[in-house]
Amino acid sequence: MTGYGQARGGKLPVRWHIEIRTWNHRFFEFTSRLPNVLLSFEGKIRDIIRDRVKRGKISISVALKNGNDAQDHLTLDEKKVAFYLRNIQKIQKKFCLEGKMNVNTLLAIPNVFVSQTRENDSEALWNGFKGVLDGTLRNLVRSREKEGLALVRDFDKRLDLITGSVDRIQKETVKTAEKQFVRLKDKISELIGNAAIDEKRIEHEVAMMAERMDVTEEIVRLGNHLKHFHSLIRRGNEVGKELDFIAQEMNREVNTIGSKSQDSAISADVIRIKSEIEKIREQVQNVE
Questions:
Q1: What's the whole-number average pLDDT of the chain?
Q2: Which helix H or strand E contains 23, and what residues bound it?
Q3: Which NCBIfam families match (predicted)?
Q4: The dihedral of CA 2, 8, 11, 16: what is its sign?
Q5: What's the pTM?
Q6: What is the pLDDT of residues 190-218, one digit of tens each?
């Protein structure tokens, strides 16, 4: 389910700006852009978000604004610089490459200056960040709840359309036996001319045809699936996979009705129902 949440805050001199975006996805997929001081907390952040968002692509972006003492926490990563110098010289020697290294070359090394955060500072940073993260998640959940309500309205509309088609199919199946009787009688009359027609034999044949085309069980099961789907979308919690399964079962019942039917009106309603179920299945992928 798509959603967006952001929040700003923190204890001076540290200020946080957090943005979280979510997109539709069948599974949980997490990406992050974090400042260096939070890299060690990435797993913790992921777990906190997963407690609130069970499904979808989730992207978190964190910006850190520090106060006047920001430079006090920065130090040159001498080990990293030595590693780069050593390996650059090794490459030059091995491949006979010319060129001199200067300060600009060293400054081009990613994160050559790192934040040296003391353990007590790290805990304070996390506590300040956690409060802002909680606020961001609350805003994200509100955004997703709004989309959830829109999804429920869309589901209700499609379920009503399907229910209308099922009702028409149920009424049409009652008429089908009568239509088959008249059609079979007319066909026999055309074949045998003025000879006597065995009405009982025709009734027997029509009864056998009606039994083969009977869709009562499928209609009952489809009706139950519709009621179950309707109740689930109002239950909350994690219902996405269950809704997807019910939509598949609905589609299976409709396919059976279509295969048994020889009536054009019923076939038309079967096509309408399958179209609505397909739209429902697409939307169900947005539900946790």
A1: 84
A2: strand 15-23
A3: YicC/YloC family endoribonuclease (TIGR00255)
A4: positive
A5: 0.63
A6: 666 666 666 676 666 666 666 666 788 89
